[in-house]
Amino acid sequence: MALTTVHLMRHGEVFNPDKILYGRLPGYRLSDLGNEMARRVAEHLVAEKRDIVTVIASPLQRAQETATPSAKAFNLELGTDERLIEAANYFEGKTFGVGDGSLRHPEHWPHLINPFRPSWGEPYKEQVARVHAAVDSARELARGHEALLVSHQLPIWIARSAYEGKRLWHDPRKRECNLASLTSLTFDEDTLVEVKYTEPVADLYPNASKVAGA
Fold it and tell me: Domain of life of the organism in this record (predicted)?
């Protein structure tokens, strides 16, 4: 068997005091806690003696900052893959909610009519296609070893759901993809044989897990 593991890591906590749905907007960096999460995951991977031979991140700043400590820990150059980027979202740059958020304005309501596609953003099937393609590329680079890909909550969760044969539309509150978590995909040659979810920095949550962002 030539086992290859690709770890899909969600970035750490973002500095976002205005609780904006920042999506793909530039300039959203990690908070101090987020930087600590990134550092701790790197330490965890080293302590676990993981065989990481490539580290690749979404081009967004928060993902790049999350991946950097792990790339340094394994003495690797950090790569970038556009296919790992956050999902496009109509509500990007807005607050999202009923009170003083976007949902109180009727002009936004047509974007909420179809949760199955979804109508407010990038289709789920397109997210699956690009993230699975990024995973396939990483598997080729790390065949027989391990790769670390840093991405965002929704693309990771949708990619995992597709691998597990689950429906793509879902309740966002039930995603198993916390900040700085690892969704680890193990392949025997080209066949997926295991999906494992871990939270190396769970002790840093509990408030961080409730922070808005993706």
Answer: Bacteria
